[in-house]
Specification:
The complex is a heterodimer of chains A (about 425) and B (about 300). In chain A, about 30% of the residues lie in helices and about 25% in strands. Chain A contains 14 helices and 18 strands. With about 300 residues, chain B is an alpha/beta fold. Chain B has 11 helices and 9 strands. In chain B, the strands form 2 sheets. In chain B, strands 7-6-5-8-9 form a 5-stranded parallel sheet. In chain B, strands 2-1-3-4 form a 4-stranded parallel sheet. The chains are: A alpha/beta (about 425), B alpha/beta (about 300).
Chain lengths: ~425, ~300
């Protein structure tokens, strides 16, 4: 049993419970939230108890990051559960959804057992694993959604791959409907994006790199949403990157039920940031134009996009110190997810409440997990944040095992001061 | 002569692309090149301004004319030239470009000439070595010495570039020659028409300050120069065109299409040529119109100038 903890004078934001006020928070001896809000103040806590005056720093629910790659099993040299946990905690992330693109692939019950054991032994944060949609990520045979559901798999995705076969996709949706499985699609047509390195456009032409057109994404979204009209399973588009995709989502929102995510990278950067072949900005989906970026922000503000993810993809230096076309795709970003998202608040793009909603209650609702809120009685997973603290991103200071940040030297405002899971402070700045 | 008394400087350490150069850099290279044209025609072609310097030609992609041109250029200037064809050595053993670069760097070369199939390879290499790097073609991005020799050829034939109307035709998508020429000829004040089927036209090319055409007769109309590019079948991973036959019909340079250009228009081609695919074989050999051989000849002079200027 731990001691009760009292936090007073905090700015509390908890979108699920519509809390956006100055108040206090009490963590009970059982590690759960006992009381929260403006009613918790110096006048109504026992006078002998010690409390922490947060001086109007922010308390958010611990973030739920819906798209995280961990190197276990197979790529432990890129990231393991221990290093991932530490990086996540430094970024205020207390729950992560892991991708099945490991070696071997997470596509069967015994792999899930292994994953859960490793997660339990090595991870400090909550791990919510996904399994692959198809066996071996091969895009041919669908996985055992029912059996894997029973093992605690919360969603199914081929991660970096897309189900190309339309007939298979329709059958996956049918099966997912029967078994209440969440389907998460990475939307990209393989043929249209073949050998593609960056957004198809002026930067691709200038750098002499093969482009990935925006319609490669749109065409899969359109196809899946069409299928969804007949087979209405729980369906989530992992990440979108372009104005065309926002438009198609807007058009279909009234007709079918689905949810959408976006990477913080696509919200914060555009193709011009790639500069002179900076391989750390080789991402999937690729960074697109400034117009595309602005449309994604608009998409969030209009409730067309539900979730912001880090798309944390740790890659070792050797995989990036290559020519652009040979270099690995992806950026390490779980510890900068919140500070980078706060930039969108500071520059007036998105309201703070909305940003937090997209990283807490919205993903929790899609995943049907009891996380991402500060509800009384729930696990005290939370972070305390100084949203105005200035700092500069330096890769040598990163906690993740892989230092492939795509925002090296970026000046940010906002830092996590401490992160709690089940009422225990596991990170302190 | 080649040894000008007032040493002229280039603003860049490396020659990675035309897009990095200033107009005065370009003029310096072109005027230095002119000095070498005469030398290359004289009986004794060898001078010693690069004596004691080591030049490594690092070719990851097969090349005949560019590699031999750079080799000859280095030798005529008195450098010790070593040519390495990497296509079948270290890379096959799993060595990365950076490791190859570090290995060569340890041998203290003064200049590395590199060709690589990946765009940006010369940029990457230049970050890892101490000596100057000359890009002899990287992927589809740039081939600066080719553009410089093209500009020199045009100046020799037309005495100017500013105000000329130049058509660049063919497989633009896969062409580094096209990109370098667009930057360079634009910088020198030419009016550029790009002619290609839509499938071989890079996206947003108009933003580079050129006019784009899918109809060749319209594109070459009233042009002073018609520059043909090689159809790069080896870079095509899927079907871009129905057939060579149809391509020749619509985009091959034939007398009836050339007729639309100015009567004194000259024909250029960076080579190697696909005769009967992008160019009529008789036109290619027509000494009154085609300057393809001069391009090769002046290529040596341009590369001598670049070696000299970037070695300093």
């Amino acid at each position: 049993m731990m001691k009760k903890q009292y936090f007073l004078n905090a700015k509390i934001i908890d979108p699920k419970n519509s809390i956006d006020e100055i108040g206090g928070l009490i963590i009970g001896e059982n590690g759960k939230i006992e009381a929260i809000g403006k009613k918790v103040n110096q006048n109504n806590i026992p006078s002998r108890e010690k409390y922490i005056d947060l001086k109007e720093k922010f308390i958010f629910p611990g973030l739920v990051d819906m798209r995280v790659f961990v190197g276990e099993p197979g790529y432990e040299y890129k990231e393991n559960f221990r290093t991932l946990s530490n990086a996540a905690l430094a970024g205020g992330v207390t729950s992560v959804v892991t991708m099945p693109n490991t070696s071997p692939v997470i596509d069967n019950v015994s792999m899930v057992d292994f994953l859960k054991r490793r997660g339990r032994d090595k991870s400090k944060i909550n791990i919510f694993p996904t399994a692959s949609l198809t066996k071996g990520l091969e895009g041919t045979n669908m996985n055992e959604f029912g059996l894997l559901n029973k093992k605690g798999i919360i969603g199914y995705t081929d991660g970096t791959q897309t189900i190309q076969n339309t007939r298979l996709m329709s059958r996956i949706m049918r099966s997912a409907f029967d078994l209440d499985a969440l389907v998460i699609q990475h939307a990209e047509d393989n043929e249209l994006s073949k050998d593609g390195q960056v957004n198809d456009g002026i930067i691709a032409t200038k750098l002499g790199l093969q482009g990935i057109p925006d319609y490669a994404e749109k065409i899969i979204i359109e196809r899946d949403l069409t299928l969804l009209e007949d087979f209405n399973c729980r369906y989530h588009i992992a990440q979108i990157s372009s104005e065309k995709s926002v438009e198609i989502i807007k058009n279909r929102k009234e007709i079918v039920k689905f949810t959408t995510g976006v990477s913080i990278n696509n919200l914060s950067l555009n193709q011009n940031d790639i500069g002179d072949f900076r391989t750390f900005l080789k991402l999937s989906p690729p960074l697109r134009t400034e117009e595309d970026r602005l449309s994604l922000i608009k998409g969030i503000n209009q409730n067309l996009i539900d979730v912001i993810v880090s798309d944390h993809k740790p890659e070792d230096e050797e995989s990036k110190r290559l020519t652009f076309s040979q270099a690995a795709t992806g950026a390490s970003g779980i510890e900068t997810l919140l500070p980078l998202a706060l930039e969108l608040f500071h520059n007036g793009s998105i309201k703070l409440n909305k940003i937090i909603e997209c990283m807490t209650s919205n993903p929790a609702k899609i995943l049907k997990i009891d996380k991402g809120s500060l509800s009384v009685g729930s696990d005290a997973d939370l972070c305390i944040v100084d949203i105005y603290k200035p700092w500069v991103v330096k890769k040598e200071k990163m906690i993740s095992k892989s230092k492939n940040t795509c925002i090296e030297d970026k000046k940010l405002q906002g830092k996590v001061i401490s992160t709690f899971i089940n009422g225990v402070e596991l990170f302190k700045c | 002569m080649a040894n000008s008394k007032n040493a002229v400087k280039i603003s860049k350490k490396h020659l990675l692309g035309i897009q990095d150069l200033s107009i005065s850099d370009v003029k310096t290279i072109l005027s230095e090149s002119k000095n070498f044209i005469a030398l290359n025609k004289s009986k004794n072609k060898k001078i010693d301004i690069l004596r004691g310097k080591t030049q490594i030609n690092l070719f990851f992609e097969p090349s005949t004319r560019t590699q031999s041109s750079f080799e000859l250029a280095g030798k005529r200037l008195g450098a010790d030239v070593m040519s390495m064809n990497i296509t079948n050595s270290a890379i096959k053993k799993g060595e990365t470009l950076i490791d190859t670069a570090m290995t060569l760097n340890a041998m203290h070369p003064d200049i590395i000439v590199v060709r690589h199939q990946d765009s940006g390879a010369s940029n990457l290499l230049s970050q890892k070595v101490n000596c100057a790097v000359l890009n002899a073609g990287d992927g589809r991005r740039e081939h600066p010495t080719q553009a410089l020799l093209d500009a020199l050829t045009i100046m020799e034939k037309k005495n100017k570039i500013e105000g000329l109307k130049i058509a660049i035709c063919g497989d633009i998508l896969h062409s580094r020659v096209a990109r370098s020429n667009i930057y360079l000829l634009n910088m020198l004040g030419a009016d550029i028409n790009i002619v290609a089927p839509s499938n071989l036209m890079p996206k947003d090319l108009e933003k580079f300050g050129v006019n784009t055409f899918t109809n060749m007769k319209e594109g070459v109309k009233d042009c002073d120069i018609v520059m043909m590019l090689r159809l790069q079948n080896e870079r095509m991973t899927s079907s871009f065109l129905s057939s060579n036959r149809e391509y020749y019909e619509y985009y091959g340079l034939t007398p009836d299409k050339l007729e639309k250009a100015k009567s004194d228009a000259i024909i250029m081609h960076p080579g190697p040529m696909n005769r009967g695919i992008e160019i009529d074989t008789k036109l290619a050999d027509d000494i009154n119109k085609s300057v393809i051989k001069e391009q090769v000849e002046l290529g040596v002079a341009v590369r001598m100038a670049c070696l000299k200027l970037f070695c300093e």
